[in-house]
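Reopening this one. Same input as before:
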Amino acid sequence: MFLSSFENNIDKKGRVSVPSSFRAFLNSKGYNSFIAYPSFNHSALEACAQDRIEKLSDSIDSLGPFDDKRDYFATSVLSQSINLNFDSEGRVTIPGKLLKHAKIKTNIIFVGLGKVFQIWDPTSFEKFKSIAKKKSYLNRSTLKWENKFKKEGV
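Same output, byte for byte:
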């Protein structure tokens, strides 16, 4: 899983080191890269493994072939998705158009969200994190998970 948050600098050549735990997770799935695309909801980038973007593509393909929504999603996600390969030192070069969307200049923060991660400008993320914490507190009763012990009779 992608967990925690890691801040790094973008070097003069536009490269950034991807957190080693993120690379290890991707490598465990057989990938030496990840897919990034502009977030719908934030001035940030969404990022995931190849299998996750394939699952998203399958979901888009499940819409009717002449459904406008299919074109909207494919254009908004798939046409803007970029496969970012790690170099020998675990770095990637994020294209300028993606950096511009996320308002990233020199520093970058990788934010683990479980099966996916996001890439933010650190100042923008701090503002969002504050809002997210307040909203999570207010909505905490809606979070549910399956109680395995109850099913097993323990």
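So the earlier flakiness isn't reproducible anymore. For the record, The beta strands are 5-9, 15-17, 33-38, 45-48, 82-85, 91-93, 107-112, 117-120.
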